Amino acid sequence: MKAVVYEGERNMQVNDWERPAKAGPRDAVLRVTTTAICGSDLHMYEGRTPLEPGHVVGHEIMGVVEEVGEAVSSIRKGDRVVLPFNIACGFCHNCTRGYTNMCLTMNAQQPHAAYGYAGMGPYQGGQAEYVLVPNADFNCLKLPGEPFDEWEEDFIMLADVFPTGYFGAELAHVGPGRSVAVFGAGPVGLMAALSASLKGASEIYVIDFIPERLEKARAFGATPINVRDGDPVEQIFQLRQANQALQQRLRPGEEKLKGVDCVIDAVGYQARDDQDYSRENPTQVLDNMVRLVNAAGHIGIVGVYIAPDPGAASDSARKGVFPLPIAEFFDKAVTVGMGQCPVKQFNEYLRDLIIMGRAKPSQIVSHRIQIDQAPDAYEKFDERIDGYTKVLIQFRE
Ligand code: NAD
Ligand code: ZN
Questions:
Q1: Is ipTM over 0.90?
Q2: How does residue 285 score in pLDDT terms, banded at 50, 70 and 90?
Q3: Residue owning the nearest CA to atom 25 of ligand 1
């Protein structure tokens, strides 16, 4: 079969790879129909992770079950499923509490396991024609319909970016009438904006510097804030101040709350050798978040911060230390949540929003490619050029 293989920094190749062997008693083999390239794959691509060359990548995966082990009871050959990117056992201390992002048994190195990712266990990725699904009863979400129907491109978002955006909104305590700002208009930030809208936020600002991505944010009902137009925090302060209706409903002291209640980081660590404004200083988003959040507000960090990165540009980033202005956090009594998304907590509900026509996450898709085009797509998605926002690799029969 063909598979996208990490062969070193900025070097993804499409190789011939052995098809996953017949499933073990609790496993399944999936024939992949659609898989996607994620911003998280760029941490490997740009060399921020210690991944050994020769690993099939890809953790956003859906398809049709090809075969199942004899102990699998809830999934059958022919079922259409999407895989949460976390691989979990379902039985450990963390899984039973819903923290499948912190499964204690599926990875000997640390409490995370995922397909095709550095440090996440031995599991091969799903940017390939077939993938092995460990512990298949727990690690599949069943889907209605047929491959490549009207929902295919929505359902693939359930593997990661839609639940992750939603998780960011949960961590930031987004709810009806809340004001929200999202740093990053990549797939995760856009899904956070959609989630904020589903959760009833009254104001949603999305901050980035890529016009095409900011336009997509507008389509989800958000106000785009372009960093190139000046300090994004000041821009939001000013927009809110200029809004007569907002100003007229002031309670005593409310004029001191210039920012928003809920802030989401969907950028993460983007540093190293890139000279771009946004990436020079990996703490910049963190600084901006604490300036922007109102007192007693909430911050959700789903952008990934990785350590150690021996090749990083700054000493602190090399060690994985990203200084947070902790005194200001304390002063403002801000709560902060972060981490990998426990996809299984949300994917079923989000699937049903898709089925009932209340969410259309596929609006972020910019490119549909065949697997042979993957190396080129990685390059362009990484450079964020030519409108590359969300790339789907599809296997049509
Ligand atoms: P992405 O990396 O392309 O998106 C990042 C966006 O941030 C880009 O549009 C970029 O232009 C923008 N950006 C960079 N610096 C900025 C700055 N200083 N201010 C504002 N915007 C800035 O792709 P993505 O798929 O959306 O991933 C975003 C982050 O989410 C990555 O770190 C990824 O690893 C992480 N992620 C986390 C989880 C999780 O479970 N927590 C899951 C998936 C992805
Ligand atoms: Zn992902």
A1: yes
A2: confident
A3: 39
